[in-house]
Specification:
- The protein is of the alpha/beta class.
- Helix content is 27%, strand content 17%.
- The protein is built from 29 helices and 29 strands.
- The strands form six sheets. A nine-stranded mixed sheet has the order 1-2-7-6-16-15-14-8-9. The chain has a six-stranded mixed sheet with strand order 25-27-26-29-24-28.
- Helix 9 (281-294) crosses helix 13 (334-347) and helix 9 runs parallel beside helix 15.
- It is globular, with a radius of gyration of 27 Å.
- Bound molecules: ligand MGD (2 copies), iron/sulfur cluster and molybdenum atom.
- One ligand MGD binds at residues 169-170, 192, 195-196, 454-458, 461, 485-488, 490, 492, 502, 504-505, 539, 698, 705-708, 783, 838, 841, 854.
Length: 864
């Protein structure tokens, strides 16, 4: 039975306090957990050999080397764990991984520390007091499974399975989550893609018909035009791309030109860095296209054969986009635009133009992204060596297919998963419009009986996080029941009813594949490098256990005992070339690469095989090949081009799509007039901006990932502070100096988006750093800091251990560091854990796709 009574004074007396007390918590005992409290307790007090002081010697003679996959960011590099006596002591890059090879970033190397964090969640906990009060009781896993199953079954039996949602951040077990939701009939699989990169993906899909993000051939390139990507510090394919850019720069002397509003580490390492008015990158790219065509520097053969509009129409489209027009909008000199465009074209085809969130996280990001990709088509670098290469959609190949039977696609609909106002959000992949989830719950456009959050930091990482997200998370009328899977007591966990202590990424199973910059199909296996502490358990296993308790109609989709067995079954069908069983091979090598395949150069030119052509018909008007599939329905399988049947681009015309009818149609459905061309769309919030208003943008530090890394002490030791960047001239005009505090006040957006009234949203007081390295009209602040939860490293609070040592302590080796070495603790005169301003950044989905226009935010600033 779950005890929902508030704690009486007498019971309060025996309450334990602080995460560290978890280690000694008995079944049924209660604990109080609070935000930002000086969790100055630890679970072991001895200064043993592992105490974090002195040197640590790894006995390599006894060490095992086990391949797995990093997940300290979404790049998922292949790793090798060095494991001694069942304990992970070190990670390095897996040379067999074609993407990262032996290279890892600082986050990758420091990440395994989270496993031995003394403030890990160790046991399932059930809320006892009010939601958000922080009062918990330790329960057993059986109780946790039973309660979840009962509540989910109730929604199913009431005929509203869509009122059960799983909301994931960076999960990498999407298939497992999809299987569970499919089995219970719920479509409500929520994610964070619209906060992250949905505009970028949509721009790729419209233009070339496939793939999550660009995988340019940087190692072989001569020239890179980078519009708002910080790939030396971030990017979805971070290390994979960065190491190849370095190679291209050193081996080929490739030139790197970066457009960033701020001197990022990428901008600083570029040959040329340009600041432009935020959100005007599309105009610059269009003007570059104008210059290339006007100078006759285009690849006419590619244009004539492979793009879906006649050359004359293309020239007409570009006619008005002069460098002078773009200069007036962007602040980048017309001469520079002209020069860079011609340099770029001169390097063709070994050149590429790319974007990332600096261009895409805007109202016009989707359109601007398309304008940048189109530059590659104009000069014919698409797919070429050193050019804008791309891969097939990254997929787990059939040899590792998931275990049958798979549940059917749910028939029900949820506005949370598929908001009709954003017709391109789910067109090519289910990207969704995550930032509307809490807004729609608050506005009563949907409700949820069961909300399961997993690797989700919404109070700190989402727009209106500590305002809207927290308001909804604490409201039991909007979210009937919230189960949270996390590794630490995070801010999301604080607003849950049930806490499910997860296995960290070094302690669990998974399959992963990514856009591969080596241009081949590949898969990596994530396997446990050590056991999770105490009762922490992989969320994938939690889903399996709950499913088995939901009745035979659900359990029938679970013909395996646990996640490990599911992985084994998936790997065992295949035999490696050396005769090893696939399961042994994957556990020993960690990576499967399709060696039979040609690298994905000029994928659109790949010829259809005789087998593919058998039974196909060629339409003489469109030159498209049609063929009936197994269901009898005809599909386009390729195009007759350059005298041969070829794969083409996976767009409706099988050509690089410049004018997109899909976009015209999608726009018409929601009253957004769009002629289908990648035009420049002025950002409504930025029109006639008064002189005392500024652009407020954010960025990622090289050593932090979103809300994930703050508990990792070496990373927080390197960066624990995130002052607001302000230009020297701006600061002088406002009388502000480094270290001063300012009050930042933000405004809601304008235009065709959610709550676009331009009204004041909220204020925050933050410290300032004055620098030449930022556009005078832009203020910038990193989003990864300012945690109020997550333990001592995350909140910058050290202290002496107050709890008696406990033998239950699983991995308390490093506690001394937390006790005495958090020198950035304000109590020791340090600067603290930084600030989080997501609470005052408005929800602002961009039209059609729904990508959060993070970098459109407008603010005022006042010295305090
Ligand atoms: N202002 C601003 N905000 C941004 C951005 C920005 O540019 N500016 N960027 C956005 C982007 S690109 C993204 S992708 C989103 C990401 O934002 P989220 O989707 O929220 O992802 P994370 O911050 O990685 O999620 C962190 C949560 O996962 C928990 N966690 C870590 N490891 C594990 C684990 O092994 N198991 C479980 N169960 N939980 C774990 C952490 O404790 C934390 O609670 O943030 C967005 N937020
Ligand atoms: N270290 C680290 N690596 C990461 C992550 C992380 O959190 N930390 N997260 C991973 C994830 S989920 C993602 S989505 C990727 C994101 O990778 P990126 O998109 O490369 O990173 P961001 O910092 O979001 O944005 C890139 C740059 O855009 C700039 N910028 C902001 N506004 C504008 C603008 O209006 N115009 C221009 N031109 N530039 C602007 C910022 O200053 C920043 O340097 O990184 C991945 N890798
Ligand atoms: S880029 Fe760094 S943190 Fe991200 S997966 Fe690779 S090693 Fe891990
Ligand atoms: Mo992201």
């Amino acid at each position: 039975m779950v005890d929902r009574r508030p704690a009486s004074p007498s019971r309060r007396a025996v309450l334990k306090h602080g995460i560290a007390a978890l280690a000694g918590l008995q079944l049924g005992e209660m604990i109080r957990l609070r935000p930002g409290e000086a969790v100055a307790r630890s679970i072991i007090t001895s200064d043993g050999p592992d105490s974090g002081r002195g040197s640590r010697r790894i006995d390599y003679a006894r060490a095992r080397r086990i391949p797995s996959a990093c997940l300290n960011c979404s790049t998922v590099c292949g790793i090798i764990g060095t494991v001694v006596d069942g304990k992970l002591v070190k990670v390095s890059g897996n040379p067999a991984d074609p993407n990262n090879g032996s290279v890892l970033c600082a986050k990758g190397q420091a990440g395994p520390l989270v496993a031995s964090y003394p403030e890990r969640l160790l046991y399932p906990l059930r809320r006892v007091g009010a939601r958000g009060e922080g009062l918990w009781r330790r329960i057993s896993w059986d109780e946790a499974y039973a309660e979840l199953a009962t509540r989910i079954r109730a929604a199913m039996d009431a005929g509203v399975p869509e009122e059960v949602a799983i909301h994931i951040g960076r999960s990498r077990i999407g298939a497992e989550i999809g299987r569970f939701l499919g089995a219970i009939g719920s479509p409500t699989q929520l994610n964070h893609r619209a906060l992250c990169s949905s505009a970028k993906r949509a721009a790729n899909y419209v233009s070339i018909g496939e793939t999550d993000w660009e995988t340019p051939d940087a190692a072989n390139t001569k020239y890179i035009l980078n519009f708002g990507s910080n790939f030396y510090e971030a990017h979805q394919g971070a290390i994979h791309l960065a190491r190849r850019v370095v190679q291209g720069r050193f081996d080929n002397g490739a030139k790197l030109v970066t457009f960033d509003v701020r001197l990022s580490n990428t901008a600083g390492r570029s040959d040329e860095w340009f600041t432009c008015t935020p959100g005007t990158e599309g105009a610059i790219a269009l003007a570059m296209g104008h210059v290339i065509l006007a100078a006759g520097r285009q690849d006419q053969d590619f244009i004539d054969t492979w793009i879906n509009v006649p050359a004359a129409e293309l020239t007409a489209f570009y006619a008005s986009y002069t460098p002078e027009w773009a200069a007036a909008l962007s602040g980048v000199a017309a001469e520079d635009i002209r020069r860079l465009a011609l340099e770029f074209a001169a390097a063709a085809p070994a050149c590429f133009a790319m974007t990332n969130r600096g261009t895409e996280a805007h109202y016009n990001g989707f359109h601007s992204g398309r304008a940048v990709i189109l530059l590659n088509a104009l000069v014919g670098s698409v797919g070429r060596k050193g050019g804008f290469t791309y891969t097939e959609e990254p997929r787990i190949p059939a040899i590792f297919a998931d275990v049958a039977p798979l549940p059917p696609r749910p028939q029900r609909q949820s506005v949370l998963e598929n908001p009709p106002e954003y017709p391109l959000a789910n067109k090519w992949q289910r990207m969704r419009v995550g930032q509307l989830v809490y807004a729609y719950l608050r506005d009563e456009r949907a409700k949820l009986q069961v909300y399961i959050s997993y690797t989700l930091g919404s109070p700190t990482t989402w727009p209106e996080g500590r305002s809207l997200a927290v308001d909804v998370l604490r409201d039991e009328a909007k979210i009937g029941f919230h189960a949270c899977s996390d590794v630490v007591y995070s801010e999301t966990a604080h607003y849950a009813d049930l806490l499910l202590p997860d296995a960290a990424y070094t302690e669990r199973w998974g399959f992963d594949t990514r856009n591969n910059f080596a241009l081949r199909r590949y898969v990596v296996l994530r396997q446990p490098l050590q056991a999770p502490p105490a009762e922490a358990r992989s969320f994938a296993d939690v889903l399996i256990q709950v499913a088995k308790r939901l009745g035979p109609d659900v359990a029938r989709y679970y013909p395996f005992a646990d996640h490990e067995e599911q992985m084994r079954l998936r790997c065992s069908r295949w035999t490696a070339p050396d005769g090893r069983n696939g399961w042994d091979y994957m556990r020993e090598v960690g990576v499967w690469v399709d060696r039979d395949q040609d690298p994905f150069y000029e994928l659109f030119r790949w010829e259809l095989t005789p087998a593919e052509l058998a039974g196909a018909r060629l339409d003489p008007a469109t030159r498209l090949y049609h063929k009936a599939g197994p269901d009898g329905r005809e599909r386009v399988i390729g195009i007759h081009a350059e005298g041969k049947p070829r794969r083409g681009f996976l767009t409706p015309s099988r050509k690089f799509q410049v004018r997109a009818q899909d976009v015209v149609d999608a726009g018409a459905a929601v009253g957004w007039p769009d002629d289908g061309w990648p035009r420049f769309i002025p950002i409504p919030s930025h029109q006639d901006m008064p002189a005392d208003r500024f652009h407020l943008v954010s960025f990622k530090w090289n050593v932090h990932t979103q809300a994930r890394t703050a508990p990792q002490r070496y990373l927080s030791e390197i960066v624990h502070d995130n002052p607001l960047w302000m230009n020297t001239a701006t600061a002088a005009a406002l009388g502000i100096r480094t270290g001063d505090h300012v009050e930042v006040t933000t405004f809601r957006p304008r235009g065709a988006t959610y709550r676009a009234d331009g009204e004041k949203l909220g204020s925050a007081v933050v410290p300032v750093i004055v620098t030449e390295g930022i556009h005078p009209r832009v203020l910038a602040m990193s989003n990864s800091l300012g945690q109020a939860f997550g333990g001592r490293a995350a909140t910058a609070r050290g202290g002496e251990p107050a709890e008696p040592p406990s033998r239950v302590a699983p991995a308390a080796a490093d506690h001394n560091d937390y006790r005495s070495n958090i020198w950035w603790d304000p109590a020791r005169g340090g600067s603290g854990a930084g600030h989080n301003i997501n609470g005052i950044l408005p929800v602002q989905p961009s039209p059609l796709v729904g990508m959060q226009a993070w970098y459109d935010t407008v603010c005022e600033v006042r010295k305090v």
